[in-house]
Specification:
CATH topology of the largest domain: Helix Hairpins
Oligomer: single chain
Number of domains: 2
Structural class: alpha+beta
Largest sheet: 10 strands, antiparallel
CATH architecture of the largest domain: Orthogonal Bundle
Radius of gyration: 35 Å
Helix content: 55-70%
Shape: elongated
CATH class of the largest domain: Mainly Alpha
Distance between the termini: 49 Å
């Protein structure tokens, strides 16, 4: 119905902008839920470890209680036999009444101490069992919340994909395609300008990777993700409209949730949603910048220092992943100007 209304309206100028804004809103919500999910998974793991530790402590306390109980029972039986059958032996075995009383006193003291120790261990075991039950209850609640978040995230992702399909359909309408392309180009240009402005103020050495050391890696950089090459750097013809466009980086196809990594040491200067690019990470390497876009989730934060090979996030299809489907878009820039990453990557 929504598509029919859009098509019936023809080349309404606001349709493309509206869809872009809606996709951005859904991507942002999905990213928020993914972050909450990651935090909750950590909480669940910690709760489970705590419950396991408490259960182990309770089992150890119960074993000690059992051992202590055996000891106390043995002493009680010995005292009973002594009183019933050995009182005279104990009496005549002592040098004097004072020694007799001393022996009886110490025997009773040992029994009382063992009983107190046993009671202490019993209380500890009960306390540990109660704590373990509490931890298990909290763990169950965490798992239920995790399931709710998964359902919400899946629903949002399905809706986002539906809107991407609608966007592709609109792209096939000549009157709408030019408007869509103008929006995408404007988003890229705006981001490029902001990158260039920021880089103009940066020192030559950032995040432990200066310009010279990064330049020495030309032709040696590892690929940020293992995947099939979808599109190289430079001009290409849009598959749906035939319009000429420019890819500012390289795109690889990879399964949803595949991790992608930093190609070199650097510092995170951007980590979040950028219109057109979706969830993205940008690393600074002196005057050079590497950019990783269309992620489903990010694993780093701004100002964080990373090493080559460190995980930055997970592959996704956020933003305007041209053609649809999960992928990683990778760019390499020098003073804000896009370079061909193929010339920098190892064969």
């Amino acid at each position: 119905m929504w598509l029919a209304l859009c098509l019936a309206a023809g080349a309404q100028e606001g349709s493309a902008q509206q869809l872009l804004a809606e996709i951005e809103a859904y991507d942002t919500q999905v990213a928020l839920l993914s972050g909450q999910l990651a935090t909750l998974e950590g909480t669940v793991a910690a709760a489970q470890a705590d419950a396991d530790a408490k259960l182990a402590a309770a089992a150890a306390a119960e074993a000690q209680v059992a051992g202590r109980g055996d000891s106390v029972r043995a002493l009680v039986r010995a005292l009973y036999r002594l009183r019933r059958f050995g009182a005279l032996r104990l009496l005549f075995g002592a040098d004097d009444p004072v020694e007799l009383r001393r022996r009886a006193y110490y025997l009773r003291a040992v029994i009382v101490a063992n009983q107190a120790r046993t009671a202490e261990y019993v209380a500890l075991a009960e306390q540990n069992r109660a704590a373990a039950a509490s931890a298990a209850t909290a763990n169950e609640a965490s798992f239920r919340l995790r399931e709710q978040l998964l359902v919400q995230r899946d629903a949002l992702e399905a809706e986002r994909k539906r809107r991407v399909v609608l966007l592709r359909e609109i792209q096939r309408q000549p009157a709408m395609a030019s408007q869509y392309r103008a929006e995408v180009a404007q988003a890229q240009e705006s981001f490029t300008q902001s990158v260039a402005t920021r880089e103009a103020t940066l020192p030559s050495s950032v995040g432990g990777s200066d310009t010279a050391s990064f330049r020495s890696l030309r032709g040696k950089l590892r690929k940020p993700v293992a995947g099939r090459l979808l599109r190289g750097f430079g001009a290409y013809a849009d598959a749906t409209t035939g319009a000429r466009a420019t890819n500012l980086g390289i795109d690889w196809s990879a399964g949803a949730g595949t991790s992608f990594a930093a190609v070199a040491d650097g510092v995170v200067t951007r980590a979040g949603y950028v219109r057109g690019y979706g969830q993205m990470v940008m690393l600074q390497h002196g005057a050079y910048t590497t950019l990783y876009a269309h992620a489903s989730a990010l694993r780093v934060a701004v100002d964080q220092h990373v090493r080559a090979g460190d995980t930055l996030g997970l592959v996704g299809a956020t933003g305007l992943a041209d053609g649809g489907g999960e992928r990683l878009h990778f760019e390499l820039r020098y003073n804000g100007t896009p370079q061909d990453p193929a010339e920098w990557l190892a064969p």
